Amino acid sequence: MTASTKETAMSRITKTLSAGMSVAALLIVGTAGEAHADDASFISTIRGNGIRVAAMNDSTIIALGHIMCSSLRDGSSLDTVAGFPAGILVDGHGIAVTAQQELCPDTIK
Q1: How much is the average pLDDT of 6-22?
Q2: N or C: which end of the chain has fewer CB within 10 A?
Q3: Is the pLDDT of residue 23 over 70?
Q4: How far apart (Å, rounded) are the C-alpha atoms in residues 27 and 20?
């Protein structure tokens, strides 16, 4: 992946996150009464494996996982998706891998 391609993918993820986090959060809150085994399994795996998520609550983590899956379905690589969010307090790779396994296994190649 070239630097330009990676920047484009990161830009798309950043735009999606900034615009999509509130929409995704609203969708999650709006469907809170419905049971989603994949969402529950995703959170259980994140929490059970001690994956660093800073101070994010479960709804935010689920929204992030779905946004990561959307980016994977749009053609971004796992490494690119894992690069955001990044930092000492967040394990982007752990979140991305868990999202792929629990929320969007159809993206596993």
Answers
A1: 54
A2: C
A3: no
A4: 10
- CA-based angle 22:24:29, to the nearest 5? 90
The tokens of 96 are what? 């991305």
Q: How far apart are CA 95 and CA 76, in angstroms?
A: 15
Which among 30, 26, 28 is positioned nearest to 42, based on CA atoms? 28
Quote the percentage of the chain above a pLDDT of 90: 59
The residue length of the chain stands at 109
Predicted TM-score (pTM) of the model is: 0.68
Q: Is the pLDDT of residue 26 over 90?
A: no
First to last CA, the chain: 17
Neighbours of 60 (CB within 10 A): 16
